[in-house]
Please model this.
Amino acid sequence: MAALTLLVLARPTDPRLRLLERLPGETRIAAGDCAEAFRDAAPAAEAILTWFTPRALLEEVFSAAPGVRWVHSGSAGVEHVLFPALVESPVPLTNSRGVFSSSLAEFVIGVVMFFAKDFRRMVRSQQDGVWDCFDVEEAAGKMLGIIGYGDIGHTVAQRARTFGMKVEALRRRPELSRDDPLLEAVHPVSGLRELLARSDYVLVAAPLTAETRGLIGEAELRVMKPSAALINIGRGPVVAEAALIRALEQRWIRGAALDVFDQEPLPEGHAFYRLENVLLSAHCADHTPGWMDRAMELFLDNFDRFRRGEPLRNIVDKRSGY
Model:
């Protein structure tokens, strides 16, 4: 096979780059986190790996690499990768979809337990030295509504069903899940408020696109049950932040567990830090041992497929944004 030239957009000190040593020995690799690092290699490049670097760098490198035939994103979300020239080009984009699903699903189940058993009250009572006997809830029989039923949503549904929960989902193309045995029902986007009104827990696992930005605002939060909790592991801006803060402060809903935010890191003094009914994770719910290695393993598998001319895994619909 002919030698391939790969551009790796990453911090040169990232320890995951050591795994690239497993690529065929004849592979020509240029790596760096500035455009200058690719000046000589870009004209001959066939593939680009963007490994958690700014979109502006990818744009600049992509424009200097007219022979590129494949771009891979180390992350699952691609809103920070897509730009007009890439979207309009015939170059396929792949991502790390599926790599983080199991750990995120466990986080969601942990959140359900956090609210159902009121672990915050237990910890507070223990710290205060108070013998506090109170009733807790069961997850069994509760409804989990999943907004965005991709690989993460499906994996969460599997875990939730083992706890005896009922699961309904909302997705842009509901026909793809009509026969899913994990689901009680699948709703189109027009059924969002119906799903919210029925759910005891609402999971936001949707990607950030023009259609999903601000998908859940004040009107949507107000139709949720006062006893319901919202969980966001998708992208922060899918939920209107100001409306969510009001909903939590005024107790329209029971609480929220958030792993993603409009601004990251979350600014000092932000309302989410002080709200007692918020469980806050610093966008690290999927940071398990080896999580980044698994993302690189997926890329290595795809690279082998690319050089052999075989179908790539995880091809992104660039116009849909996922």
